[in-house]
Write a structure and sequence with these properties.
The structure is a single chain. It is built from 21 helices and 27 strands. The strands form 7 sheets. Strands 5-2-6-1-9-10-11 form a 7-stranded parallel beta sheet, with helices on both faces. A 7-stranded mixed beta sheet has the order 15-23-22-21-18-16-17, sandwiched between helices. Helix 1 packs parallel to helix 2 (53-61) and helix 19 runs parallel beside helix 21 (644-659). By secondary structure, it is α/β, with parallel strands linked by helices. It binds pyridoxal-5'-phosphate. Residues 348-350, 353, 382-384, 449, 454-455, 483, 485-486, 511-512, 522 line the site of pyridoxal-5'-phosphate.
Length: 664
């Protein structure tokens, strides 16, 4: 949909006549244009139902082009002359921004260009906590602001520009009107208003329409808006060069520089949806690698980011501290299992794992056990892409071959054989115990992902196994590091996956969902015993990233954890688990499917051989969903706000893709 959204700095600023005149100007250039009024309050009762006066103005200005009458261009009409939210409420209705946007798109179909006129100003409420700005965002059109030239207009104009830009929208320009008779006293003021607004920055003044009365009125408006067309910025066309540049010069994760897998260009995101460059929407089943748990563009997270940005985006953490970090660390300490009382703020999951490993080694050094420098882990794990983290990833599907000269050799037990939900077989720990004992003098810590091995294979193992590892660590006085980066914050149905086993680690890593998918941040938490041992005899923990404790990320993380505590994540996750079981269960019977498993909001369809990622991806995009399979796995980890209907659409897309052999 091409066009403009027309809003005002206030109500009664001449917005409708500007819209009508602009419509006429576009029609005069042979474009099939239409002006639309999504919500009209203050309608007049007539024999033909409610009359929308604004639409009548469009009809009057554009009469020669619509000999059979102006098309229906209003979605909601209300009699009371008041704000749309109140008018709708009095009519016993609610206005849904999503529906409204769809209705506008329907009316606009087949037109070259549409002008969508708001009601009142940008912050006018539509009900349900949504405002005209939400509708503007959904329609994603450049915005023209109409301002009445009077005392106070500069303030209103600048506030409106700020608000619109804060939503990621473009301000195409400003139209100044004069709705009252000028006096000799205010001539100077009016002239200065226009100059100030024009000189403020990069918003062009498209027209300065003088006060007019009588017969000339429409003609004057049309003349001014016709001239305005020359100043209006062109619609930016999709740039093919961008995609060529992306392919030729930008590294994307795990793909060839010579023959990269194609990328899909995203325009924006909101809720559970990824909006592509062409305006089509995908239901996000990945939560952007599992982190956007509250969905995208959550108002509370955006607000936290904006207000922190206004105060302080970053300051070094060495020797300085700040409220966002203090608040977040206090929340993390309260939320995580008892005893994890010291918080290290890292800038990514991998870095938090490096910090955890360094803590374990420094702990042993400080304790005089200098020969304890190895890590004990199980196969099938994933802990990140930096060197220390890579060394404890699965040695086969990790990158050990490639980096064998660089990576420290760690000690591996087999993948836990006993699965989640099965009856526990105590023998499943035997081999791990044997390997541990054979190396026990060298081991500083055990590191594992609790219950769910994520990127290493979406594998769920028995809680009793984790309890066994805790016991093993205690018997040999080594530390237990739990990597909760993927599992933390409710993903598995418990706030932290270690709660399935009633196990508390000595060191714990969190990341991914920590900022609700807004920004990069992770944390390594340790017990007081670990922290104090490292620091005895003047020791200090040797890690300090440049962006440690970034205030912006901390403020957003705090907002994300607040939502988690206030919203009923447990109900959300349990509902999703139920829906996933229902909608993915049928895949079990399809040929090529080796296993279907669900835990919390994690749904996995394991195939009997590696899948064709590109072909599946194309198939999913056609079905309006976003999933990124890897290896033999087609899986989902959706935002917690996903609905039943959306979950079913994910399940149906996976079923159809496999049924149509898109995985081969
Ligand atoms: C994603 C992940 C990491 C790495 O986090 P990054 O932020 O990508 O560095 C580490 N451990 C686990 C379990 C993960 O899922």
């Amino acid at each position: 949909m091409n066009g403009y959204f027309i809003t005002g700095t206030d109500t009664d600023v001449g917005k409708t006549c500007v819209t009508a005149a602009l419509l006429r100007a576009f029609l005069d250039t042979n474009q099939s244009a239409l002006a639309i009024k999504p919500v009209q309050s203050g309608c007049i009762e007539s024999t033909h139902g409610l009359r929308a006066e604004d639409v009548e103005a469009y009809a009057r200005f554009s009469a020669p082009y619509f000999p059979d009458g102006y098309p229906e261009a209003c979605c909601h009409k209300y009699r009371p002359a008041c704000s749309p939210h109140l008018a709708a409420e009095m009519a016993g209705e609610t206005v849904s921004v999503d529906e409204l946007a769809d209705q506008v798109r329907n009316i606009a179909a087949d037109r070259d260009l549409v002008l969508v006129e708001g009601a009142g100003g940008a912050a006018v409420p539509l009900g349900n906590g949504q405002t005209m700005l939400d509708l503007m965002q959904r329609l994603d059109l450049p915005v023209i602001i109409v301002a009445d030239n009077k005392l106070g207009v500069i303030n209103h104009a600048l506030m409106t520009i700020e608000m619109i830009r804060g939503c990621g929208l473009t301000v195409a320009g400003m139209v100044i009107t004069n709705t009252s008779t000028p006096t000799t006293d205010d001539a100077h003021l009016r002239q200065n208003n226009v100059e100030t607004i024009a000189g403020w920055g990069d918003v062009p003044v498209l027209a300065d329409i003088p006060y007019v009365e009588g017969a000339d009125f429409d003609t004057v408006f049309i003349q001014h808006m016709t001239s305005a067309l020359d100043i209006l910025p062109e619609f930016s066309s999709q740039n093919v060069d961008d995609m060529d540049f992306d392919r030729d010069h930008i590294w994307h994760p795990y793909t060839s520089a010579l023959d990269p897998l194609p990328t899909v260009k995203v325009r924006s995101t909101r809720g559970t949806r990824i909006v592509l460059e062409d305006g089509s929407e995908l239901i996000d089943g990945m939560a952007s690698w599992w982190c956007a748990i509250h969905g995208y563009a959550n108002p509370a997270l955006n607000k936290a980011a904006r207000s922190q940005l206004g105060r302080m985006s970053h300051v070094m953490f060495g020797g300085l501290t700040h409220e966002p970090a203090i608040n977040l660390c206090r929340t993390l300490r309260d939320m995580t299992p008892d005893g994890l009382d010291h918080v290290f703020l890292a800038d990514s999951g991998s870095v938090s794992v490096e910090a955890a490993i360094k803590m374990a080694l420094q702990y042993m050094q400080a304790d005089g056990q200098t020969e304890r420098t190895k890590l004990f882990t199980v196969r099938g794990g994933y802990h990140g892409d930096t060197c220390g983290a890579m060394s404890v990833c699965d040695p086969d599907n990790g990158m050990h071959q490639l980096f064998s000269g660089l990576l420290p050799q760690q000690i591996f037990a087999p993948r836990p054989a006993c699965r989640f939900g099965e009856e526990y077989d105590p023998a499943s720990l035997d081999e791990a115990r044997r390997i541990f004992k054979a190396n026990s003098q060298k081991i500083a810590a055990i590191i594992v992902e609790p219950i769910v091995q994520g990127a290493g294979g979406m594998y769920f193992y028995h809680p009793e196994y984790l309890r066994g590892l805790r016991k093993l660590a205690d018997e040999h006085d080594v530390l237990l590091i739990l990597d909760e980066i993927a599992t933390g914050f409710g993903r598995t149905g418990k706030l932290f996956a270690c709660e399935w086993s009633d196990v508390t680690p000595d060191i714990m890593c969190v990341g991914k969902a920590l900022t609700g998918g807004t920004m990069t941040l992770a944390a390594t938490l340790a017990t007081t015993h670990v922290a104090h041992t490292i620091s005895k005899n003047g020791g200090v923990f040797m890690h300090g990233p440049t962006f440690m404790g970034n205030p912006l990320a901390c403020a957003v993380a705090q907002a994300s954890l607040t939502i988690l505590q206030q919203k009923n994540w447990k109900t959300q996750v349990h509902d999703i688990e139920h829906w996933l079981k229902e909608s993915f269960g049928s895949c079990r019977t399809l040929p090529g499917v080796a296993d279907v498993r669900v835990l919390g909001t994690i749904g996995v369809v394991e195939m009997d051989r590696p899948v064709n990622v590109q072909s599946l991806q194309d198939c999913f995009i056609k079905r309006g969903v976003w999933l990124r399979p890897f290896g033999k796995l087609i899986y989902v980890m959706p935002p917690y706000i996903i609905t039943r209907e959306e979950t079913e659409r994910l399940g149906a897309a996976v079923y159809d893709a496999i049924a149509n052999n898109a995985h081969i």
